[in-house]
UniProtKB/TrEMBL annotation:
InterPro entries, A to Z: CBR-like, Cbr1-like_FAD-bd_dom, FAD-bd_FR_type, Flavoprot_Pyr_Nucl_cyt_Rdtase, FNR_nucleotide-bd, OxRdtase_FAD/NAD-bd, Riboflavin_synthase-like_b-brl
Record protein name field: NADH-cytochrome b5 reductase
NAD recorded as keyword: yes
Cofactor(s) for this UniProt protein: FAD
Species this protein is from: Sesamum indicum (Oriental sesame)
Family listed: Belongs to the flavoprotein pyridine nucleotide cytochrome reductase family.
Record keywords: FAD, Flavoprotein, Mitochondrion, NAD, Oxidoreductase
Signal peptide (from-to): none
GO terms for MF: cytochrome-b5 reductase activity, acting on NADH
Catalysed reaction, written as an equation: 2 Fe(III)-[cytochrome b5] + NADH = 2 Fe(II)-[cytochrome b5] + NAD(+) + H(+)
One cellular component (GO) term of this entry: mitochondrion
Lineage, opening ranks: Eukaryota, Viridiplantae, Streptophyta, Embryophyta, Tracheophyta
Length: 318
């Protein structure tokens, strides 16, 4: 099955043909978890179903930012030693309604609280399916031993449903908004980066240069590497540098944490025409840019980027 063959490479675009213009055009594959903390709510918020028609006659959009909607799992496959690929289906005449760059929020019941109300675990994920695709979206999720939501996803079987709300806008991307975008991602923090890369490379009128530094524990932990390698080889405006903490003997990329030298050599210099995007685990965020504020605003810029002369208006933290 095409979907299952996809998991071996974890990048093939579902149902979309590869086309070439002045640069490669393609449909994106998947989604992986975003770098946002899990939170809990105690609620029985309204739940709506996708088959409800639009009263105003507008084009059908699957997502609703104010209502939890059930999406059915169509299929899932193992994509790597600790990640799984999930395809969720909905009305084939509707689009998901996802913007670049934005995420969805998922929730799953986790027992009851002291008042007898359902307790939910809530987790954001960033789809990287083609925003124009109809009838499905894909999630590539790293399954953690202690991850309540990722373990819930791993337990799902085809036909089961997940409740979703969104989209939740992060960075409003527009073509050519900057001449050069630098990206620093750690682990599953590749999600919003890939969403923006896809949007840039499939638009022949977008001339944005993109440079990505992608850090992982080991070569086996690099999600979507084959897709990223194909995109970099096919698009001269995309440059990628990988670094890992535990390299294998045949590893040819960087070794260790992202350093000042890697940033200087791999990313655009501080400039009004430069934007640096950062997403990853707390340790990486602290090292590179400082984490967001407690209220999830951008917070103060610190770390390597501050030391190298970047300013707060040149950096966006996912």
């Amino acid at each position: 099955m095409f979907f299952r063959r996809l998991a071996k490479d974890a990048w093939i675009s579902f149902g979309d043909r590869m086309k070439s213009d002045s640069r490669i055009r393609y449909g994106a594959l998947a989604a992986i978890s975003g770098g946002v903390s899990t939170c809990y709510v105690f609620s029985s918020s309204n739940l709506v179903y996708l088959d409800q028609p639009n009263e105003d006659g507008a084009p059908k959009v699957a997502l609703n930012p104010d209502k939890w909607i059930e999406f059915k799992l169509q299929d899932k496959v193992q994509a790597s030693h600790n990640s799984q690929l999930f395809r969720f289906s909905f009305d084939p005449s509707a689009k998901l309604g996802l913007d670049v760059a934005s995420c969805i929020i998922t929730r799953a019941p986790m027992g009851q609280n002291a008042e007898g109300k359902t307790k939910y675990v809530i987790r954001p994920y960033t789809p990287i399916s083609d925003p124009n695709a109809k009838g499905y979206f894909d999630l590539l999720i790293k399954v953690y031993p202690e991850g309540k939501m990722s373990q819930h996803f791993a337990s799902l079987k085809p036909g089961d449903v997940v409740e979703v709300k969104g989209p939740i806008e992060k960075l409003r991307y527009s073509p050519n908004m900057k001449k050069h975008i630098g990206m620093i991602a750690g682990g599953t923090g590749i999600t919003p980066m890939l969403q923006i890369i896809d949007a840039i490379l499939k638009n022949p009128d977008d001339n944005t240069q993109v440079s990505l530094l992608y850090a992982n524990v080991s070569p086996d932990d690099i999600l979507l590497k084959k897709k990223l390698d194909v995109l970099a080889a096919s698009n001269p405006n995309l440059k990628i540098f990988y670094t890992v903490d535990n390299p294998t003997k045949d590893w040819l990329g960087g070794k260790g944490y992202i350093s000042k030298d890697m940033v200087v050599k791999g990313l655009p210099s501080p400039s009004d025409d430069t934007l640096i995007l950062v997403c990853g685990p707390p340790g990486l965020m602290k090292h590179i840019s400082g984490d967001k504020a407690k209220d999830r605003s951008q917070g103060q810029l610190t770390g390597i980027l501050k030391e190298l002369g970047y300013t707060e208006d040149m950096v966006y933290k996912f």
